[in-house]
Amino acid sequence: MAKILTIPTHQDMRGKLSVWEKNIPFEIKRIYWMYELNQLPRGGHRHKITHQVLICLNGACKIRIVNKKSEQVFEMTQPNQGLYLAPEDWHELYDFKNNPVILLLASEEYDKNDYITEIE
Predict the structure, then answer these.
(1) What residues contact residue 82 under an 8 Å CB cut-off, 6+ apart?
(2) Can you list the domains of the chain with their CATH numbers?
(3) pTM
(4) Is 10 labeled as catalytic in the residue annotation?
(5) Which of 14, 100, 105, 106 could form a disulfide with 30 if both were Cys (CB 3.0 to 4.6 A apart)?
(6) pLDDT at 70 over 80
(7) 71-88 pLDDT tens trace
(8) Helix or strand or coil: residue 15?
């Protein structure tokens, strides 16, 4: 089930440094990012086995999550927060603001057969 994870952040007079080492709930096998986005939605699917964490490094976006238990909308605006997405979380990204850069960490390598495009 989708939930916000706080990334440990250190701050001093030079600025902020966020470091995520041991708190990631899976082994990372793929890293990818989205940028130069227009207002067309992204995502629109769920997975059979892939777990993900989404981090909006710059700008902002909304993520609609639908699963058997609930429907939620998360607004991602802080680069020290990650949104954990379980395989059963159908997700759609939209309402992109301020030139977002969205980083995703995935538990599996890309496999087109892992994608399910219907909402249950």
Answers:
(1) 4, 5, 7, 20, 53, 54, 55, 105
(2) 29-110 (2.60.120.10)
(3) 0.92
(4) no
(5) 106
(6) yes
(7) 999 999 999 999 999 999
(8) strand
> How much of the chain exceeds pLDDT 70, in percent?
99
9 contacts: CB under 8 Å, gap ≥ 6: 16, 17, 18, 19, 80
Distances (CA, A) of 49 to 59, 85, 99, 115: 29, 11, 30, 9
Closest CA to 109 of 45, 47, 29, 34: 29
- Please name the residue that has the structure tokens 């096998």: 29
Is there a contact between 75 and 18 (Cβ–Cβ < 8 Å)? no
Q: How far, CA to CA in Å, does 109 sit from each of 28, 49, 52, 66, 106?
A: 9, 11, 11, 23, 7
Q: Are 72 and 111 in contact (CB under 8 A)?
A: no
Which is nearest to 33 in space by CA: 102, 85, 106, 105? 102
Q: For the chain, first and last CA: distance in Å? A: 14
List 10, 45, 51, 91, catalytic entry: 45
